[in-house]
Amino acid sequence: MTIIICLDKNNGYQFGGKRQSTDRELRKKILELDDEIRCDEYTSSQFEDDEKGKLYGSKDLLVAP
Fold first, then answer.
1. Rounded to two decimals, what is the model's pTM?
2. C-alpha–C-alpha distance, residues 38 and 18, integer Å
């Protein structure tokens, strides 16, 4: 299992309940890591429709797909 956490220089990832930025190159690298990527529903919404084939977005990440 590989855990990925993206933080800004102040150790934050959201401001006012919204992501500070999106990074297409970072998403591309994440998708190259494995055949299945588990993430919460909010994170999966950051990916383009054609990128979502490997994603398993759920409120409960511990439940098998």
1. 0.63
2. 20
